[in-house]
Design goal:
By secondary structure, the protein is mainly beta.
Length: 87
């Protein structure tokens, strides 16, 4: 991890107790998104999905929610589409 890319801590942790920072890539089920800061609160900008809640605090408390990387060290994680078995 490049220490120059560490962003603001959100005050929240994922299901494994890992601290969540602005710029982290998070995953809930099949869906991936990036933690951002906008209008005074932390949110998730979901990758190609508009119907999920953006409130980070809501997701951080759910069992399947996890941090899988960050946009600086692991941008390739967002290249995959949010697809969940639809043909």
């Amino acid at each position: 991890m490049d220490e120059d890319t560490i962003c603001q801590y959100t005050g929240l942790t994922d299901k494994d107790g890992k601290k969540i920072f602005e710029g982290d890539i998070v995953q809930a089920g099949w869906y991936k998104g990036v933690v951002g800061y906008e209008d005074g609160y932390f949110l998730i900008k979901w990758n190609n999905v508009n119907f999920l809640r953006k409130d980070l605090g809501y997701w951080a408390n759910l069992d399947g929610f996890q941090t899988i990387g960050n946009i600086y060290d692991n941008p390739e994680l967002l290249e995959e589409e949010n697809v969940h078995g639809t043909d």
